[in-house]
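Today's session is about reading a structure prediction critically. Students often jump straight to the picture, but the first step is always the sequence itself: look for stretches that repeat, for charged clusters, for runs of hydrophobic residues. Only then move on to the predicted structure, which in these notes is written as discrete structure tokens rather than atom positions. Here is the chain we will use throughout the hour.
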Amino acid sequence: MSRAMRRGSSQAARRRTAASTAATLALAALPSVVDARPIAVGAAPSAYRMSDEQWGLAVELFGHSYLKVDKRWFLRPGLRLGYRGLTEPEQARGLAINERDISSLAELAIVRDGSFVPSLTVMAGVVARSLSLQADAVDTMQSKIPRWEALPTVSAQVGVGLPLWRGRLVLEPFARLELTVGDSRQHLRLGVETSFAM
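Below is the predicted structure for this chain, in token form.
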């Protein structure tokens, strides 16, 4: 082999090595949610569809961790506590039924780690619901509307997380369908989870 051919072959090999190194560094530079935060806590403001086709406001606090399944796939178990009832649907003047929910949920998600973090989550738990009747100039003390009731609930949620600050902060828009035993309404909830590394 001539000297020129050897020199050309050597230069091609160096270019391939440089390209391989650059690709490896680029992949390593992607923010990894799991590496940055094996345990995270956060809050999730959301809007949910009410019975009168209006939207109400709710808020949740949550914590979760990660269990490795594969190189990029993880299970994300967690717990969350929520409050719903910051707003009420419009009702007849002088008569109103106020509904407040405090939810306690366990959840399990399948998550793919990377520069974006798609997730599919199932949830189950209990909703403690407070119902009260308010009426002008009417005694409601003998009302049969229960003050409190405990209702089992299940939910399914899809989301896509955006890791920021080297993965220590994640913003995750989500859509959730909620089904509650004893409540014929199917609540659609839209919101954004914000989680921080511990």
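Discussion point for the tutorial: Residues 24-31 have pLDDT under 50 and may be disordered.
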